[in-house]
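hi! just following up on the protien thing from before. the input was this:
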Amino acid sequence: MQAPPLPRVLIARLPFFYGWVVLGCLCLAGFARQGPAVATLSIFVVPMTEAFAWSRTEMAGAVSLGGLLAAFISPVIGPMVDRRGARLVLCLAVAGTGLATLALSLTHSLLVFYLLFCFARMVWAGPFDLGLYSALNNWFVARRAVATSIVTLAQMAGLVALPLIAQLAMTASTMTGGATAGSDWRAGWVAVGATVLIVGFLPCWLLLVRRPEDVGLQPDRLADGTTAAPVEARWSRGEAMRTPAFWLLSLYTVLVYPVQAGVSLHQAPHLIEHGIPPVAAASVIAILAAVSALAGLGIGFLPRRWPVRYLMAVAAACLSAGSFGLIGVSSTEIALLPACLFGLGIGGLMVLLPMAWADYFGRESFGAIRGVALSLQVTAQAAGPLVSGMLRDWSGDYTDSLLLFGALAVAATIVVLAARRPSRP
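and the predicted 3d structure came back as:
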């Protein structure tokens, strides 16, 4: 595969491994990815539902439908990323996300909102995930945990920054009189879309390379030019799908991702309904994301001799404890502990699950294997917000959904302990 010209010029002059440049591009793309994240949309739930008289179920349905669309396209995109690399996929993902979130400021009906947000959410759930982790796992093997934790840190930084950027833009628009009553959320979408485009597009277009072998390098090159990468198993998609590990990791995914998405989308309205002011609720979400970032970064430096499934079980247990703990919040201070536990779980999940797929089945067909698993993941993510919104509309609060999500995370904790790394016959 032909690499863009600028990387070849830089490789001849840089005193360090070019994979770190690739990692920097992936960090910026990961930050930009969070424009249509459920934590960002959570900031818009109250003002948009009040402006248009939508139900929470109607708004959550856009998240779910976007995820279902990603479930259909991910198995197709995965093999393409293996063959052609992540550069084109990530560039299109950033551009599409930025333009769609900018256009959300023009929303005037539920149909328009669905068309724009479902597209952005589909890109978030499918192309972004496959592009980021395929590129990362192609360039890093021995340092995969560290590299994955750094990319997770960047994505968590996006989850910290973009909800705050949206909330501050909305507040500033109201204070300066630049918005009519109930329409300050439009300024929030403009701020989100502009940030996505400014941060994410050019580095990926100019600097990404499919694999180190395309430019005469090896993964994880040391200063002396040798390679630190251990020998990896090379599983095809068909071979991987015949192992118990594939289906146990998939079941873990199906159990845990409704929890991640369902709580993340509805946490701001849940806190607001319990008497916490909107700005304070946004701050709790930002702290949750910051804890997620620190947890993800710390996991990258844990000893690799620890089985990844044990750490995944701890992550699921934290999600369960956080879900149960959010039920009785009555103040910002009380909300911080369960939010931090939930953040620990999200940070662990975002680092450990992509790393487990790569560790278990290698990088040769990572995109194809991950594409199938990702279709299950995004379907599960789609179910969480929808179920939570329906239960809230039915019961009047989020207690039932938080109880359900806590129980699902407990089940995921048990399942993943059985997901041993497969060995080839």
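The first helix runs from residue 5 to 11.
The radius of gyration is 21 Å.
cheers
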